[in-house]
């Protein structure tokens, strides 16, 4: 059976796939990500005798991000061994065409809350009255790290495309977020990270 876990809410999808694999402690598990997915290795694992004759599972992380040549070969191997338990995790929502690659798979989708994107999209000059309430609502229901990831992604995108902010102010805010993240992870922050991030964003929107 093929199980697919995908969607933009990477935290929840990771928890789901790890929980699934944790329940398979008696299985021989091959874990590969997009950087080291090798069709030959997958083929050897499928066709070799497992230690103690344990049942096998292949867990492929970001399969659809691998180079096309490796992707096509790996898909062919998977389709030839659908009786084997195969886990596919993707860090974004797969397209309908991609999902049709494995029509008999069991799929779980993990979309991000629309309020998170609504909050990030409201980050515009002199829009604090709209942004701050959304900011508090999002952090009350979503992990700070998830919000920060998408916020930094959005700002990086604005730095290379159109933005209502000046390039200098965006660069300053982005560098401050990187420093904030470092200080937070190393225990150097004197105030909660949520408040520190709010101050950076308020300053950006002035």
How far is the N terminus from the C terminus? 54 Å
> At the third CATH level, what is the topology name of the largest domain?
Rossmann fold
Instruction: Write down the Rg.
Output: 21 Å
* Low-confidence sequence ranges: none
Main CATH class of the largest domain = Alpha Beta
Number of strands: 5
Order of helices and strands: EHEHEHEHEHHHHH
The CATH homology group name of the largest domain: P-loop containing nucleotide triphosphate hydrolases
Main β sheet profile: 5 strands, parallel
Approximate shape:
elongated
Query: Helix fraction?
Result: 40-55%
Mean pLDDT: 92
Class from helix and strand fractions: alpha/beta
Report on the structure:
The protein has 206 residues and is α/β, with parallel strands linked by helices. It folds into 2 domains: 2-109, Rossmann fold; 114-205. The chain has 9 helices and 5 strands, in the order βαβαβαβαβααααα. The longest helix is centred in the C-terminal third of the chain and has 19 residues, at 167-185. It starts with a strand and ends with a helix. The model has no long low-confidence stretch (mean pLDDT 92).
């Amino acid at each position: 059976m093929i199980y697919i876990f995908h969607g933009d809410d990477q935290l929840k999808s990771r928890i789901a796939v790890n929980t699934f694999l944790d329940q398979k402690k008696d299985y021989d598990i091959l874990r590969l990500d997009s950087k080291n997915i090798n069709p030959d290795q997958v083929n050897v694992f499928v066709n070799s005798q497992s230690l103690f004759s344990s049942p096998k599972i292949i867990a492929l992380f970001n399969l659809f991000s691998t180079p096309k040549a490796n992707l096509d070969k790996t898909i062919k191997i998977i389709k030839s061994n659908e009786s084997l338990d195969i886990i596919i995790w993707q860090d974004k929502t797969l397209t309908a065409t991609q999902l049709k690659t494995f029509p008999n798979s069991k799929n779980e989708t993990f979309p991000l809350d629309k309020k998170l994107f609504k909050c990030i999209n409201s980050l515009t000059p002199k829009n604090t009255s709209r942004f701050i309430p959304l900011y508090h609502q999002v952090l009350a229901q979503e992990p700070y790290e998830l919000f920060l990831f998408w916020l930094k992604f959005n700002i990086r995108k604005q730095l290379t495309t159109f933005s209502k902010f000046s390039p200098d102010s965006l660069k300053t805010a982005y560098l401050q977020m990187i420093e904030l993240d470092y200080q937070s992870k190393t225990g150097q922050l004197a105030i909660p990270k949520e408040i520190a991030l709010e101050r950076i964003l308020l300053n950006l929107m002035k």
